[in-house]
Specification:
Layout (H helix, E strand, L loop, with lengths): L3 H19 L8 E5 L5 H9 L4 E4 L2 H7 L8 E4 L8 H4 L5 E5 L2 H13 L4 E6 L13 H9 L7 E7 L12 H16 L4 H4 L1 E3 L6 H6 L4 E4 L1 H4 L7
Parallel strand pairs: 1-2, 1-8, 2-3, 3-4, 4-5, 5-6, 6-7
This protein binds pyridoxal-5'-phosphate (PLP).
Length: about 230
C-alpha cells in the first residue's frame, strides 16, 4: 500500500507527465521543485526516500536550518525574497536562487561569489502582476539587466521566474506565464544566449499544469505534495 506522501507525489508526477503530453514536451525538461516550507525534516526525508532531490524554501533561514540535517545530494532552491544580509551564509547551501529580484541583491550576490571563487546560478524574478506583495524586476528592467549582465561576473544567470496571481481558475494564469515565455523569446532574439535565459520557473500547486503548457522548466509545488499531511487541509 502506498503512503499518502507517495500517492501525492505520484499524482503530481502524473499531472506533470500529462501536461507535457498535451503540448508534446519531454517530461525530462521539467524539474519538480518540492516546496518544503510547510513541513519539517521528516516529510522532506520521506520525499527524499521516494527519489526527490530538488527542494525549495522561501526563507533563507529555513535552508540554514534544514539543509545540515539532510543528505548532501539534495539540491536546495531559494524561491523567496533574499535579504542582502543573508547572502553570505546562504550561498554555499543552494543550487539555484529563483528570486533574484533587484539590482542591489545581484551586486551583493555577485561580489560574494567572486570573493569565494564561484559563480551562483540564478533566475531573474519578473513582476508581471500588479500586486504590492510581489517582488521582481519590471519586464523592461529585466531586459536591461540581461543586456548588462556582464557587470555581475559572480552570477550564472540561467533564466526567468514569475509568480501568477492567485485565481480560482488556473486558466486565468495562462497570460502571465505566456508573458514570461515571450520575454524569454524576445531576449533570445535580442542576442542573449539560451544558456543564460532558457529556464522558466513558473507554476505552483494551483497552476503548474498550465505553466508547463506555456513552457515552464521548473515548477514549484508545495501544497499538492503535502495534502492531508499538513495542518490546515
Ligand atoms: C509557497 C511557494 C510555492 C508553492 O506554493 P504551493 O501553492 O503550496 O504549491 C511556490 N513558489 C513560491 C515562491 C512560494 O513561496
Amino acid at each position: 500500500m502506498l503512503s499518502l506522501l507517495e500517492r501525492n507525489l505520484k499524482s503530481v508526477q502524473g499531472r506533470i507527465q500529462r501536461a507535457c503530453e498535451r503540448v508534446d514536451r519531454d517530461p525530462a525538461g521539467v524539474t519538480l521543485v518540492a516546496v518544503s516550507k510547510y513541513v519539517g525534516v521528516d516529510l522532506i526525508r520521506g520525499l527524499y526516500d521516494l527519489g526527490v532531490r530538488d527542494f525549495g524554501e522561501s526563507r533563507p533561514q529555513s535552508i540554514w536550518e534544514k539543509s545540515p540535517q539532510m543528505p548532501a545530494d539534495i539540491r536546495w532552491h531559494l524561491i523567496g525574497h533574499w535579504q542582502t544580509n543573508k547572502v553570505r551564509r546562504t550561498i554555499p547551501m543552494i543550487q539555484l536562487a529563483h528570486s533574484l529580484d533587484r539590482r542591489d541583491l545581484a551586486t551583493v550576490v555577485s561580489d560574494e561569489a567572486v570573493r569565494v571563487g564561484r559563480t551562483i546560478p540564478v533566475l531573474v524574478e519578473v513582476k508581471l502582476v500588479d500586486d504590492d506583495a510581489k517582488h521582481g524586476f519590471a519586464p523592461s528592467e529585466a531586459a536591461e539587466f540581461f543586456q548588462q549582465r556582464e557587470q555581475w561576473p559572480g552570477l550564472d544567470v540561467r533564466g526567468l521566474m514569475c509568480m501568477a496571481s492567485l485565481h480560482d481558475d488556473p486558466a486565468a494564469c495562462r497570460p502571465t506565464f505566456a508573458h514570461l515565455r515571450q520575454l524569454r523569446d524576445e531576449l533570445i532574439h535580442a542576442g542573449v544566449p539560451t544558456a543564460n535565459v532558457g529556464w522558466l520557473s513558473m507554476g505552483m500547486s494551483q497552476d503548474f499544469e498550465v505553466a508547463i503548457e506555456e513552457g515552464a522548466t521548473h515548477v514549484r509545488v508545495g501544497s499538492s505534495l503535502f495534502e492531508g499531511l499538513i495542518g490546515d487541509d
